[in-house]
Specification:
This protein is an alpha/beta fold and about 325 residues long. It is built from 9 helices and 12 strands. Strands 1, 2, 3, 4, 5, 6 and 7 form a 7-stranded mixed beta sheet that branches. A 5-stranded parallel beta sheet has the order 9-8-10-11-12, sandwiched between helices.
């Protein structure tokens, strides 16, 4: 009992400390006293830190947290990594709080480049409760919650998004939201960064080259395997979904292509099992003949990243690989 009291006290103390920090941060922003500390950094490092920060919450909800960064955004940037991380921690934290199933994506792409800057878009998308259109402007006001009743389900001071908006403005960027109730939300920021002179033009090293195919039909398996092998990838093929987890634990796969209709355990359940064991960022692509309305959404809700209907052409699976190969490397963590 004493241990439970102590845990409650620690949680309450941390909540109070977070609230005080939010108020101080917002006050500085309101008074224009926030300064940016420019230094070289990699977005990939920030993403790995965020994944580590939220992985246990994501695992408890049996969801997936997926990061995708396009190669042109993998260069060394010049900016304030602490402020960038602060923005993303708020956005991802909200996504985790307001999502109870499905997955959360952090997607990054380059919008355009000038002689001395690169303009990058970072979006955080969830499959959570969504936001009414009438609330989508109001949520950026300080101390504002979409729920106003005394017995509201979700707690918080209502400062996170207000701080995000102020920080983005200080960094000469923009923040957007699109959302539908019961469908989910996407918060997108666009930020300009200078490019480190020593790293300009150096992209993310293409170091991942191992793929797992889970397919019980030998003809389909050989077809996909031959295409990917011709692209100089190392490809493992298994037909038993029960073997998948041990293969993933023993090999550093950068992607999994998975049939949905597997014997004994289907692709939906298998994906949830993989996510539950800590592989929140491993791209899992559905290969399926299920092409009815709602099948794609069902795959995504199960924790898969994308959907490739059968039959497919060689270019289809290669383009899917190219789309997801720059994702953050899977965290080598397991359920505790």
């Amino acid at each position: 009992m004493q241990k439970e009291y102590l845990t409650d006290m620690l949680n309450s103390s941390q909540t109070l400390l977070d609230l005080i920090n939010d108020i101080l941060n917002y006050s500085r922003l309101e008074l224009d006293k926030t300064t940016l500390n420019t230094m070289p950094f990699f977005l990939l490092d920030i993403y790995q830190s965020i994944i580590s920060m939220f992985k246990h919450q994501v695992q408890r909800k049996k969801m997936a947290l997926v990061c995708h960064i396009s190669p042109e955004c993998g260069i060394e940037l010049m900016g304030d990594p602490i402020r960038v991380k602060q923005i993303l921690v708020n956005l991802v934290g909200n996504a985790v709080k307001f999502t109870n199933n499905g997955q959360i994506w952090i997607q990054t792409e380059s919008l355009h480049e000038t002689s001395d800057k690169i303009y990058i878009s970072i979006s955080v998308t969830d499959t959570g409760i969504g936001i009414r259109e009438s609330d989508q402007k109001r949520i950026f006001q300080a101390f504002t919650q979409t729920e106003t009743s005394a017995n509201r389900k979700y707690t918080g001071a209502g400062l996170g998004l207000a701080i995000c908006e102020k920080l983005v403005q200080v960094m000469d960027g923009k923040l957007f939201v699109t959302s539908m109730p019961s469908k989910g939300s996407t918060f997108s920021i666009t930020l300009p960064f200078a490019v480190s002179g020593s790293q300009k033009g150096h992209k993310i090293p293409d170091t991942y080259s191992r793929v797992l195919i889970i397919e019980d039909d030998p003809i389909n398996a050989r077809f996909a395997q031959s295409i990917l092998k011709d692209a100089d990838l190392t490809v493992d093929v298994i037909e038993d979904g029960h073997q998948a987890l041990s293969y993933i634990q023993e090999n550093a796969y950068d992607m999994v292509f998975m049939d949905i209709q597997l014997p004994e355990i289907d692709g939906y359940e298998l994906t949830q099992t993989i996510r539950k064991h800590g592989y929140a960022t491993l791209p899992i692509i559905a290969l399926t003949a299920c092409v009815m309305k709602g099948d794609r959404e069902k795959c995504l809700s199960a924790g898969m990243n994308d959907y490739l209907p059968k039959p497919f052409e060689p270019d289809d699976i290669l383009q899917m690989y190219q789309k997801w190969k720059a994702s953050v490397k899977p965290m080598e963590t397991h359920e505790v």
